[in-house]
Specification:
Keywords: Membrane, Transmembrane, Transmembrane helix
Order of helices and strands: HEEHEHEHEEHEEEEE
Shape: elongated
Structural class: alpha+beta
Mean pLDDT: 77
CATH topology of one domain: Rossmann fold
CATH class of one domain: Alpha Beta
Radius of gyration: 27 Å
Distance between the termini: 92 Å
Low-confidence stretches: 26-32, 218-229
Protein name: Lipoprotein
Largest sheet: 6 strands, mixed
Number of helices: 5
Strand content: 25-35%
Length: 279
């Protein structure tokens, strides 16, 4: 009888110990999020001034050298917010566009995103203080992105793209973690995220191009001659819809189809059965 009571007592203690450990982990996890973060080096939205070019808009062709879908989306949002182009077409690379697509549209922009890493000892100290002291000891973080933009304009004489502008944005994300920060965590709601930074720098760069008259309105459609080869592609959807004598541009997850009339249609890659490129 005594043995049975001791076993029950031991079982209760074990259950209580497990529950206590779980509560400590939950509370510790909550307290470890007591980090206020903010960026420096980003452009001031109030200073972004866009000069609208006269005439018909043309498409912007671009490449973002990252596999991060959130960053790609942020760049696209930045492009769309400027309202400078008829559409924005993403490519695997500039070489892919010029060699495979035989691209000759006026402007191509390459975007390179390099993540800045925090020092090794700093990372160790930060994680030790966050997750093992429940933010009782202050800690800091420092990372961010170096974002490089390169703009190329098509030179009909050289029959190639030439560099017209380059700019690098050096942005840094700072973080300060401490238990007393908890009442002030709402500050994170009004500071920029990494997506905001990518969108802002994209807007700022394209706005600067517009003010420098680098975005000159040109005709999207060719008038005659060799450019007609742009409209010799065929696209077939999985619903068996067939489009001939069009220009098809392949991006990462989509196909963009341009007709001779200038109509632009976007297809998800999963909805396209086959694409035949013209010679």
């Amino acid at each position: 009888m005594i043995f049975k009571k001791n076993s029950e007592l031991l079982s209760v203690k074990r259950t209580f110990s497990k529950f206590s450990l779980m509560m400590v982990l939950v509370i510790g996890g909550f307290l470890s999020q007591s980090c206020i973060m903010w960026y420096t080096g980003e452009p001031d939205p109030a200073q972004i001034s866009i000069k609208k070019p006269a005439g018909k808009k043309f498409p912007l062709h671009y490449n973002v050298a990252t596999t991060n879908a959130d960053l790609k989306t942020a760049v696209r949002q930045g492009i769309d917010s400027t309202d400078l182009f008829s559409t924005a077409l993403e490519h695997y690379s500039m070489l892919d566009y010029t060699e495979k697509e035989k691209g000759q549209d006026p402007l191509f922009v390459e975007i390179f995103i390099k993540e800045k890493s925090f020092g090794g000892l700093g990372i160790i100290w930060t994680y030790l203080t966050w997750y093992f002291t429940a933010a009782l000891i202050p800690a800091w973080t420092e990372d961010g992105y170096n974002i490089e933009y390169k703009a190329f304009r098509y030179d009909k004489g050289k029959k190639n793209y030439v560099t017209i502008n380059t700019k690098v944005y050096d942005t840094t994300r700072w973080g300060f973690s401490w238990l007393v920060n908890i009442p002030f965590l709402w500050i994170n709601l009004i500071t920029y995220s990494k997506k905001d930074i990518l969108s802002l720098t994209t807007q700022d760069y394209l706005a600067a191009l517009s003010r420098n008259d680098e975005i000159v309105a040109m005709k999207l459609m060719p008038e005659a001659g060799d450019d007609e080869m742009k409209f010799q592609d065929t696209l077939v959807t999985k619903k068996s819809d067939v489009y001939t004598n069009v220009r098809v541009i392949q991006a990462v997850d989509t196909y963009t189809m341009i007709s001779k009339s200038g109509k632009v249609t976007l297809f998800e890659k999963d909805n396209v059965s086959v694409v035949h490129k013209g010679n």
